[in-house]
Amino acid sequence: MIKKVKVQILVHPVFFQIFVCRRKKIPMISSATLKLIRSLRHKKYRDQHRLYCAEGEKIVLELVRNHPGGDHRVEEVFATGEWLRVHGRLLETAGISYTEVTPLEISKASSLVNPQPVLALVNKPVKVPDLRELGSSTVLGFESIRDPGNLGSIIRTVDWFGIVHIVCSPDSADLFNPKVVQSTMGAIARVGVHYLELDRLLTEPEMKGKPVYGTFMKGESIYETRLEENPLVLFGNESRGLSGRYDPHIRTRITIPSFTKGRPGTESLNIAASVAVVCSEIRRHS
Q1: Mean pLDDT, the chain, as a whole number?
Q2: What is the DSSP letter of 247?
């Protein structure tokens, strides 16, 4: 005769509580959360919710490592089980909530053609520029940078050269546009991007005496120009260049000369490439 044995498993309530807090595993991303993530592709909803979405391992890990002391506070991470097995402990240490999801769920939420195994909801920082700091450090200024990929590449480039402030005119691409965020490859966490009217900035008392250079197709070769310490270098729109409204403030018009030497060549450099050359020269003279 087979006897039925009643087995009771006791789970310590403290252990259970810790386990639940650390891992929120649900069958799927809720429809409300999915709708929220998708809405953040549009500036209107990024402003409304004060959030943006970061996708990809490198970007998310950069933001996590800057949490909570950084300006970009991570609200929640959504990742596959495989990704969490490697990085879950880091999220727990940082006190960041996370949800394990399937690759299919990630693909539904992602704005990328090739979705990555992790994405994060991040708070948009509210940061008022310190004009004294801008006046005493190297700053790059951009007029009407419209292409999100260009802006992201610029941020990544200046980060490489240790420049921590750039200023964009208000009609430039939004910093939290998914294409900008993706193109920064994590540099968004380290570079301060300020949206200000450039001509107004140039008249601020804190900027008095600051050397201002303008980049043009025709000007003094940057390789023959002695760049002064902590300059403000202005760059124009990708297609129109720098407008004449800043001429009264520009000390020297500089250019990156072509070395095609009489043969047909490229008409102009991509703005991110131009920024790299200028940053290199700034550091060479500093």
Answers
A1: 90
A2: G
Domains of the chain, start order: 26-123 (3.30.1330.30), 131-260+267-285 (3.40.1280.10)
Whole-number Å distance between alpha carbons of 39 and 32: 10
Distance in angstroms (rounded) separating the CA atoms of residues 34 and 105: 9
Largest CA distance in the chain: 102
Distance CA 223, CA 278 (A): 9
Closest CA to 167 of 186, 151, 147, 178: 151
Query: Model confidence over 13-48: pLDDT tens digits?
Result: 444 443 344 444 444 789 999 999 999 999 999 999
How confident is the model at residue 8, as a pLDDT?
52
Provide the 3-class DSSP secondary structure of residue 268: coil
pTM to 2 decimal places: 0.87
Check if the beta carbon of residue 206 is closer than 8 Å to that of residue 139. Answer: no
Q: What share of the chain is helix, strand, coil (3-state, %, to 5)?
A: 40, 20, 40
Q: Judging by DSSP bridges, how do beta strands 165-168 and 139-142 pair with one another?
A: parallel
